[in-house]
Design brief:
The protein is an alpha/beta fold. It has five helices and nine strands; from the N terminus they run E-E-H-E-H-E-H-E-E-H-E-H-E-E. It starts with 15 loop residues before the first strand and ends with a strand.
Length: about 200
Amino acid sequence: MAQYFENDPTLLSKEFKFNTTIQDVFLTFYSNRGVFSKSSLDFGTRLLLEQIDFLKGRVLDFGCGYGPVGIFLKKKFPIEVDMIDINKRCLHLALKNAKENKVSVNIFESNIYENIKDEYDFIVTNPPIRVGKKILYDILLGAYDHLKKEGILFFVIHKDQGAKSVLKDLSQVYKTEVLIKDKGFFVIKCSKILTS
């Protein structure tokens, strides 16, 4: 079975639609087979988004899937949003969902940060854990080089997926803070450490 971060042209399409509310924002999403949490907004992503109470400037939604993170953030805050994924089905859905929810966002394909040329005030992600530790760290530690000097990375990870060891390793590079723990999920804020 293909993973949701892989492109599988043989996977049959069965598109459907669902509604959800995040904070006070009502959203409608098209979803499909072969994408993460296809039937509803997953608990980890919801918990992550509920902790974000203010954003400004430019934001990158890493691993956007069908688009809940970037679309919600664009609805909620006066920001510029880029959304990336490696899965073409996800990108198709994210484009469709941006139109459905009447938001203007920039959506494009990127293998990790391969097609990222800019720096961001914030990077927000529910990272794909099944890619393995090396790629997970490429995502989380690699974010550092794509954040502005006072930029912040927000992400969510479950304790069973190594949350504590990831937090310890990231604290060598970032100033880290656990914003909330709920049902084993950690929402983590990583700020760039400014060096003189």
